[in-house]
Amino acid sequence: MTSDAIKIAALYKFVTLAEPDAWRAPLAKLCNEHEIKGTLLLAHEGINGTVAGSHEAVDALLDWLRSHVEFGELDAKFSYSAEQPFLRMKVRLKKEIVTLGVEGVDPSRNAGTYVEPQDWNALIADPDVIVVDTRNDYEVGIGTFKGALNPQTKSFGDLPDWVDEKLDVAPDTKIAMFCTGGIRCEKSTALLKAKGFDNVFHLKGGILKYLEEVPQERSLWEGECFVFDSRVSVGHGLVPGPYDQCRACGMPISQEDKAHAQYSEGVSCHHCYDAMSDEQRARFADRQRQINLARQRKINHLGADLKEARARKRAEKELQRRRSHGEVVDDQV
């Protein structure tokens, strides 16, 4: 199988769906017929998800979606893989396609103004513009735009509190927001407009589109961009970066971080070591031994990797809980 045999599409569209459940069965049927795997989320506010399959299969799905007026301008970004990265196809109904937790925020009707990547530099270089990174703190930690504010959120649902408590600017202030691929900043600008801010802008296509289209010599981006796939981070031209990922908590880690005494592959890193119980570390260590053995035997260990991802989510929730109770302070680890 060639290195780009599988096409991976990350897609979303904010659009009012009166009956999101009506789309569920047709989408599942189409994906299963084309042997597409991954996850699609449906809600009254639209569609979001990541799917993978042959080039022809993914193109057929996108053609089908875009043939309907609701998804005529569906946004999709692509990457490629030698192997299918997902085990099964899931089409799920959700309250929100990206969880903010605020009623009445409608990006399909009241989002900010799109700014093309080629025009972004001029906007954020204006000293009168407030630039806000809408991503989580660990993402911002490895790269962001020069001069951008970091709300220091642990999840996207923390952003409304930051807006209410920290964004102390006049309603007519120009505010530029950005995120990885466009979905979070689009919803963030809708949040701000709902709160009375009038001059709100967001980067079309997100950081990824900017890094793809804007030459490095003209770029105002500093560092790497965290991505939610096996690349972990990318730089200009979407070239995979130097970061790996802690398989226990999901945090991006550098080669220097791996030299830390509290790092153990698949078990812990300096971000999560103090939040792990002995039982968790023992379980993660046993899981890592199984993964290593499968790799030595050249066995496809996708199932184990999926279990690893689920375990990592559980560990991350525990880490967030302990942070919220003041048990873990990042500056101390």
Automatic annotation (TrEMBL):
<protein>
    <recommendedName>
        <fullName>tRNA uridine(34) hydroxylase</fullName>
        <ecNumber>1.14.-.-</ecNumber>
    </recommendedName>
</protein>
<dbReference type="Pfam" id="PF17773">
    <property type="entry name" value="UPF0176_N"/>
</dbReference>
<dbReference type="InterPro" id="IPR036873">
    <property type="entry name" value="Rhodanese-like_dom_sf"/>
</dbReference>
<keyword id="KW-0560">Oxidoreductase</keyword>
<feature type="region of interest" description="Disordered">
    <location>
        <begin position="309"/>
        <end position="333"/>
    </location>
</feature>
<comment type="similarity">
    <text>Belongs to the TrhO family.</text>
</comment>
<dbReference type="Pfam" id="PF00581">
    <property type="entry name" value="Rhodanese"/>
</dbReference>
<dbReference type="InterPro" id="IPR001763">
    <property type="entry name" value="Rhodanese-like_dom"/>
</dbReference>
<feature type="domain" description="Rhodanese">
    <location>
        <begin position="125"/>
        <end position="219"/>
    </location>
</feature>
<dbReference type="InterPro" id="IPR020936">
    <property type="entry name" value="TrhO"/>
</dbReference>
<keyword id="KW-0819">tRNA processing</keyword>
<comment type="function">
    <text>Catalyzes oxygen-dependent 5-hydroxyuridine (ho5U) modification at position 34 in tRNAs.</text>
</comment>
<dbReference type="InterPro" id="IPR040503">
    <property type="entry name" value="TRHO_N"/>
</dbReference>
